[in-house]
Amino acid sequence: MERASTLNIKLGCCFITKIMILSIKRKASKSKLILGLVLLISFNGWSQPCGVTPDGDETSFGSAAWIGYVYDEANDFSTANYRGTINQTELFDEDFGASTGTFSTNSPCNVDLETFSVRFKMRQTFACGEYRITIGGDDGVRLSLDGGTSYVIDDYSTHPYRTVSVDVFLSGSTDMVLEFFENTSDNRVSFTYSFLSGIGSGGLIGNSDQTVCTTSTPATLTNVSEAGFCSGALTYQWQESTDNINFTNIVGATSSSFDPTGLSAGLNYYRREASNGLGDVLYSNTASIELETPAGDETSFGTTTWIGYVYDGANNFSTNYLGEISETEIFDDSFVTIPLSTSGCTLLEAQTFSVRFKLRKTFTCGLYSFTIGGDDGVRLSLDGGSTFFLDDFSDHAYQTTTGNVYLDGTSSTDMVLEYYENGASNRVTFSYAVVNPDGDPGDVGDSQTLCSATDPDAFVSNSPSQFCSGTPPAYQWQESSDNINFSDISGATGLTYDETSVATGVTRYYRRSATDGTSTLYSDTLIVTNATATGDQVTAGSGAWIAYWYEGANSFIDYRGFTNLTEIFDTDFGGGEVTSLLNGGCTVANTTYSIRARMSQTFACGNYTFTVGADDGYRLSLDGGATNHIDNFSNGAYRTTDFTTDLDGSYDLVIEYYENTGGNRLSFSYTQNSMLCPDPLPVELTYFTASDEPSGVTLRWQTASELNNDFFEVQHSLTGTGESFQTIGQVDGNGTTNEVHDYTYAAKPSVNGYHFYRLKQVDYDGTFEYSDIVIVVKNNLSTHQLSVNMYPNPVCDSELTIDLNQPLNAPMALTIFNLNGKKVYESQFEPSTQSRKVLLPTTLPNGMYSVRIDLGLYHVRQKLIIKQE
User: What's the rounded Cα separation, in Å, for the pair 562 and 548?
Assistant: First the structure.
């Protein structure tokens, strides 16, 4: 046989087929390969893993002997891993035969000796008395005497073989559960017991060994198992001792558990006495509580090293003081996650704690840079804790904070570094360096950005210059155009300086020099940029917004520049506490500003709903600002307002908005609810006119598009009434086209007077539409097209004049509509001169209106603005 190999094939998700392929080579002249296929099928999932149903119900107790329920994982008693039972005598010591390989249960099922668990159960009847029970395990083992509800011995962790004993009171039938798990390497479990006394047992108390600080509270001494007597009535009395020899009763402490108070420094011992009233007295195990007194007075300063006063709890410097630690002058410390040792107390976990470091140091004169770092909060005081020079006191990952300060070297500096840790990683650092041994140049403020102005605010002195020589400083202000080469400003020798002129479009740099006659120090550099506010404040965007910005809330005076917004938008302009850079380089703080946004938009005839929202005030106009159709111009959190109206044509939209601190947000949107106007004609006429020509009247018209246009009939009338029109000619159309087409027709009127013309557009299917009527007045064989002039516009004093360019012996009707399409005024006039005056009602509100003028069958439409004073 040359070789054998095994192929595992997974069929579906329920079982695995193993195919062994045997290759056999014969030495005969005609060799053959004989393949033998052996199918070994294990129905994993259809039956138990060991091929049979494991014996045992996992719940029954053995009688005076143990039933051990076996599971094929370490510390896992789930039914899915159950493999059957094993048996043990009442007292046993079992190592399962080896440390590797497998062992079999009664099923039989093979169990891995490296990782398994056994839950032993035995019901035993004990004569009344005290017993010492000893269990052992490699690894975890624990014992219950109440069927598994609680454990009187619990050594449930991975470890080499070891034993644990407990003295307990037993009487009658007892349901014992011994749980054991093995987690690699050697395995062993044992159980024994012995009879100690026929009187009873003092029972067990928990939390028996504690170490606490004077600022902490010890845990309650709990009742692990009750005391018991074979006769009499049970009573308890707690006792205390400082030497573990002489115990005294604690007044009132007669329960099964006890909360210790009033501990003495050092070791304190407690036990529970049990009596039966018949003269028998028994005692529990003894509990010790060591009271540690934290060292340190919480106030003293270190002189060459930091004294760190440690407290239990994050951001806590008043309670639970634990003692002191020490750090070198410059340090970087990450505390471990095991208990952090302090002087006197050792109970601090390095997850939630606080440290107040103190160091008194005399610095030589100079300007110093201090850097502190922390994960989490850290802050530094240079005046003993009254104020904090550096403050980064919040939860965060490790980060550093740096600041400069002048120290005169004449007295010591009481430094206080406060640090707290609030979970996860922890780290605190402190360092410093000399920036300038000559002194402090001082600090000036502030950098500015002007906008179409020339006079910046005066430069102030945030702090004066100071020299270690003690000589008062002499000041000189300097300026630069490149922040490299500075020149003195004549006469500018004070702490402050007021520059009066910075040209538009220029950036200038300023600093203050100081000298004591020997050394020269320079302040920080101020930058003044004079940008130009571009934009004319009146142009409207076409199908998009131009937003004109102004400095100040609810103020449209100090213009700063513009930005662009899409037709539909929702924006917070970069945040609540930042500065926006506008077109042209001007800036405006996003806390108090105003915006007037303009957009020209053409709306198809229909019904529309507009929605505007903002934090703070906002309003919307559809007529260029004359009327506010939405008006919510007040401070408030973000909210929205709707306005619904009918529109047809081009409108000038204006949004006014202001922000007055806090969050900022502005939004605009609209929806078309319905189409209110008829569908467009099959032929879209751009214009239709009549003009004077030497040979007569020339009619001209133009189409922007045509749909199934067969021809135009040219019709004429001397009266303008519908039944009086007669066809005088025909012009072929262009069928269906999206291109512009121009048409002309020459008419030859034979009489003077009014001549009315219209077009009848006819489709291929015979349907037709009429155009508007054009009027020509023929006097002495000359023609003049009628036009209408309406003024003043805007009208301010209610009087409106309407002029015709020639007399027309026809009545005139005037109708005025608001932007919602509602008729608000109507008047008719008899034939008169070319000029007519109309007195409008004073009750009409200011705003934009649509005016229709009817002259017989001839009519015109114009827009009118009313602006009453």
Answer: 4
What is the structure's pLDDT at 576? 63
Alpha carbons within 13 angstroms on the beta-carbon side of residue 49 total 13
Query: How many residues in total does the chain contain?
Result: 869
Q: For residue 691, what are its two tokens?
A: 């003009």
Determine contact, residues 718/810, Cβ cutoff 8 Å. no
- Nearest Cα neighbor of 492 from 514, 520, 524 is 514
Nearest 5°: CA angle at 336, between 333 and 339?
A: 125
The dihedrals phi and psi of 724, each to the nearest 5 degrees, come to: -90, -5
CA 549 to CA 821: how far, in whole Å? 33
Neighbours of 47 (CB within 10 A): 12
| Beta bridge mates, 815 | 826, 852
pLDDT digits (tens, 9 = 90+) for 207-262: 989 888 877 789 999 998 899 999 999 999 999 999 999 999 999 999 999 999 88
Peptide bond into 376 cis (omega under 30): yes
Residues 6+ apart with CB under 8 A from 252: none
Is the preceding peptide bond at 72 cis, omega within 30 degrees of 0? no
Residue 540 region, left (φ>0) first, then alpha (ψ -120 to 50), else beta? beta
For the record, the structure tokens of 851 come out as: 């005016």
**CA nearest 306: which of 212, 443, 417?**
417
Q: What distance separates the 2 farthest-apart alpha carbons in the chain?
A: 151
Q: What are phi and psi of 58, to 5 degrees?
A: 70, 0
- pLDDT in the model for residue 765: 87
Any residues with CB less than 8 A from the CB of 398 and at least 6 apart, and which?
373, 374, 375, 425, 427
Residue 657, CB-side half-sphere exposure with 13 Å CA sphere: 27
Asked if residues 698 and 729 have their Cβ atoms less than 8 Å apart, the reply is no
**Total-model pTM:** 0.51
Which runs of E-coded beta strand occur in 26-114?
33-42, 62-63, 66-71, 82-88, 92-94, 102-104, 110-112
Is 58 exposed, middle or buried, given 0-12, 13-18 or 19+ CB atoms closer than 10 A? Answer: middle
User: Do residues 437 and 407 touch, judged by C-beta distance below 8 A?
Assistant: no
Contact 552, 662 (CB under 8 A): no
* 710: CB partners within 8 A, 6+ apart: 732, 733, 735, 762, 763, 764
What values do phi and psi take at 79, rounded to 5? -60, -30
Which helix or strand (DSSP H or E) is residue 689 part of? strand 684-693
Q: How far apart are CA 143 and CA 692, in angstroms?
A: 121
The pLDDT tens digits for 31-74 are 333 333 333 333 333 334 677 889 999 999 999 999 999 999 99
Q: Is the sign of the CA dihedral 550, 552, 556, 557 positive or negative?
A: negative
Q: Which two tokens stand for residue 662?
A: 């806090």
Q: How far apart are the first and last CA of the chain?
A: 117
Which of 360-364, 605-609, 795-799, 832-836 bottoms out in mean pLDDT, i.e. has the lowest? Answer: 832-836
Contact by Cβ (8 Å): 401, 374: no
- CA 84, CA 52: separation in Å to the nearest integer? 10
CB 650: neighbour CB atoms within 10 A? Answer: 10
What DSSP string runs through 164-226?
EEEEEEEEEEEEEEEEEEEESS--EEEEEEEEEESSEE--EESS-EEEEETTS-PPPB-EEE-
Question: Contacts by 737-740 with C-beta closer than 8 Å and gap 24+?
Answer: 737/705, 737/706, 738/705, 739/705, 740/686, 740/702, 740/703, 740/704
Burial group, residue 391, by CB count within 10 angstroms (0-12, 13-18, 19+): middle
Amino acid at 536: D
How far is it, in rounded angstroms, from Cα 730 to Cα 746?
A: 11
Eight-class DSSP state of 44: B
- The pair of structure tokens assigned to 774 is 């054009």
Distance, in Å, from the CA atom of 629 to the CA atom of 820, rounded to the nearest integer, reads 11
In 764-869, the DSSP E strands lie at: 768-770, 774-779, 782-785, 788-791, 799-804, 812-817, 823-829, 835-839, 847-855, 858-866
Task: Annotate 672-698 with b (16+ C-beta within 10 A) or e (fewer).
Answer: eeeeeeeeebbbebeebebeeeeebbb
